[in-house]
Specification:
By secondary structure, this protein is of the alpha+beta class. 30% of the residues lie in helices and 24% in strands. It has a seven-stranded mixed beta sheet with strand order 1-2-3-5-6-9-10. A three-stranded antiparallel beta sheet has the order 4-8-7. The protein has a three-stranded antiparallel beta sheet with strand order 11-13-12. The longest helix has 16 residues.
Length: 256
């Protein structure tokens, strides 16, 4: 990364922001279309750091040191939930780097349509003594996003081919035809299946997720019928194949 840009700043956050955004503008391409470049947004643009001038896709870049974390700090909870429901959320780029060498170790993309609301964790409101008393932020829980929707750009310092990355995103596109609320359920059920490493399974196997889904949706008293419904949605969008009554197979990424 262009680490010399950091010499003009004393704030650690500013140093990282300037370096990583400059690297993103220089090195990244749009996964949403065939554009070879992304452009930095003006300073202080809320929630968006990079944009594709060709398709107008927006990207938020979250950077940090070390290994990929389970939780990514984000902005206001209510604003993030609204952006998901209204299909306005930016695509998320999660970058991890080594501060000594200023080298990128990993980078992954979460498409803007792949956030179930349950992946947005509400933080405690700021105290009455804080400058923004009562403000409530959020964290993004990567564990609650299916692995299918965590698309790697760079793994252990090695960049993947851009056509493979665009192919991974294209395979997720059928989800955009589903309403945001229904899509959230489909993503949660898919995450239950993926997190248990199911390849071939039964509907009853997925019922093992009912307590987890009940915690996420305490207002819903019909979790198992909802699971059955979402298995059909995942079949219709190509993530699952129905082999016989009550039996399913996870489609390989290449087959989606």
């Amino acid at each position: 990364m262009p680490f010399k840009l950091a010499e003009h700043y004393t704030s650690a956050c500013q140093r990282v922001r300037v370096v990583t955004e400059a690297w993103g503008e220089r090195e990244l391409f749009c996964a949403n279309c065939d554009s070879a470049t992304l452009t930095r947004t003006p300073h202080n643009t809320r929630c968006v750091d990079l944009v594709c001038k060709r398709c107008e896709a927006t990207f938020q870049l979250k950077s940090g040191q070390g290994r990929l974390p389970r939780m990514i700090p984000d902005g206001a909870y209510s604003a993030m939930i609204s952006s998901i429901r209204e299909n306005r959320a930016p695509n998320l780029l999660v970058l991890r780097y080594d501060l000594v060498s200023w080298r990128v170790n990993s980078l992954l993309l979460v498409p803007n349509f792949a956030f179930p609301e349950s992946s947005i964790i509400q933080r405690k409101p700021l105290s009455a003594q804080a400058r923004r008393a009562g403000w409530t932020g959020c964290n993004i829980s990567l564990d609650r996003i299916p692995v299918d929707a965590r698309i790697p750009f760079i793994v252990d310092g090695v960049a993947r081919d851009r056509w493979d990355i665009r192919g991974d995103l294209k395979r997720l596109r059928p989800l955009t035809a589903i309403s945001s609320r229904q899509r959230g359920w489909a993503l949660e059920v898919l995450n239950c299946i993926r997190s248990r490493n199911f390849k071939s399974f039964t509907t009853r196997d997925v019922y093992a997720c009912d307590e987890e889904l009940q915690r996420l949706h305490p207002e819903n008293r019909h979790i198992r019928p909802k699971i059955r419904q979402q298995l059909q949605v995942l079949r219709d969008t190509g993530f699952l194949r129905h082999t016989e009554r009550g039996r399913w197979v996870v489609q390989d990424r290449e087959a989606l």
